Amino acid sequence: SDPATGEKHLMGEFLKNAQGEDVVAGVRTPMPIAQMEQEFPEAFEEFVKVCKTLEDHYRDMQDMEFTVENRKLYMLQTRNGKRTAQAALKIACDLVDEGMRTEEEAVAMIDPRNLDTLLHPQFDAAALKAATPVAKALGASPGAACGKIVFTAEDAETWNARGEKVVLVRLETSPEDITGMKAHRVS
């Protein structure tokens, strides 16, 4: 399943002529897992079967590590895959629909601390993928925000008083920024 959306399809990447540390180091660009079908058709076919077996056994989305040596597939490890709150809900519902989990088990799979993120506006995943960012930063709150960028709490208050939607951008927030955070209005 897709760890961002929960959509049910094989997801991942692989490197040719590489070991685990090559993948972790990020010195080479991995290929999408779908390309493995062309490169190693027999190993890919076996990998698809193993994925189903492991996900059926653990009754959850799996994050798997593997290697192919001399065109033979070797599974190295598997663990329950990390996912967004949106994906967690979709996967849990799908597991109930497929008869793999009870409703009670599915509810227990959801971390209630992550549900808050679902209550906030989100950017469309396809639009994000197609967009060219002008900057990147760490969000101080969950969800999507659009508005005029302001750099001080005072400017946030001033623009907000005029009815403008604002996004307060800071290198670090401090207690003095609380009035600007409260004035922070977005669409």
UniProtKB/TrEMBL annotation:
GO terms for molecular function: ATP binding; kinase activity; pyruvate, phosphate dikinase activity. It comes from human gut metagenome. Residues 41-94 form the Pyruvate phosphate dikinase AMP/ATP-binding domain. SUPFAM superfamilies: Glutathione synthetase ATP-binding domain-like, Phosphohistidine domain. The keyword Kinase applies. InterPro entries: Phosphohistidine_dom_sf, PPDK_AMP/ATP-bd, Pyruvate_phosphate_dikinase. Coiled coil: none annotated. This is Cytosolic orthophosphate dikinase. The keyword Transferase applies. Pfam families: PPDK_N. Keywords: Kinase, Transferase.
